[in-house]
Amino acid sequence: MRSSELFKEALELFPLGVNSPVRYYSPEPVMFAQGHGSKILDVNGKEYIDYSLGFGPMILGHANPDVSNHIKSQVDKGILFGSISENEIKLGKTIKNAVGSIERLRFTNSGTEATMHAIRLARGFTGKKYIVKMEGGYHGAHDYALIKSGSGTMTFGVPSSAGVPEEVSRTVLVGRYNDAESIEKLFKEHRNEIAAVITEPVLGNIGVINPENDFLNSLREITEKYSSLLIFDEVITGFRFGFKGYQDIAGIKPDLTTMGKIIGGGAPVGMFGGREDIMAHVAPQGDVYEAGTFSGNPLTMAAGIATLDQLKSKDYSAITNYAARLEEKLNSLISEYNIDATINRCHSMFQIFFNKNKVTDYKGATASDTEKFNKMFHTLLEKGIFFPPSQFETEFVSFAHSETDLESTVDAFSSVLKCL
Ligand SMILES: Cc1ncc(COP(=O)(O)O)c(C=O)c1O
Ligand SMILES: N[C@H](C=O)CCC(=O)O
Question: What is the pTM of this model?
Answer without folding.
Answer: 0.97
